[in-house]
Amino acid sequence: MEKNRQLTYGLGGLGVLLGGLGVLLASGRGREILSKINFHLDRAPHTLEDFAGATQAELDRIQQTLDQIAARLQAVG
User: Fold this and answer.
1) What is the 3-state secondary structure (H, E, C) of 23-38?
2) Is 1's pLDDT higher than 80?
3) Which of 2, 34, 55, 63 has its CA 20 to 30 Å from the CA of residue 42?
4) Phi/psi at 27 (nearest 5 deg)?
5) Model confidence over 12-70: pLDDT tens digits?
6) CA 18 to CA 20: how far, in whole Å?
7) What is the Cα–Cα distance from 8 to 2, expressed in whole angstroms?
């Protein structure tokens, strides 16, 4: 009996979710929102690649600076 109740509530929640998605797709505002989401998801890989490249360049610069500091400390010590 308990399992049956969980299934009913689960299907009810799924129905509400699908109904909300249907309303979103049926309205002009909803289609506009989905279009904007799609646009940003299409741009995301390029933005992440740019971020990764800039981060790697900064890490390389930090590593170079640390290498210079280590060389100077070895020369002094």
Assistant:
1) HHHHCHHHHHHHHHHH
2) no
3) 55
4) -90, 150
5) 777 888 888 888 778 888 888 888 888 888 888 888 899 999 999 999 999 999 999 99
6) 5
7) 10
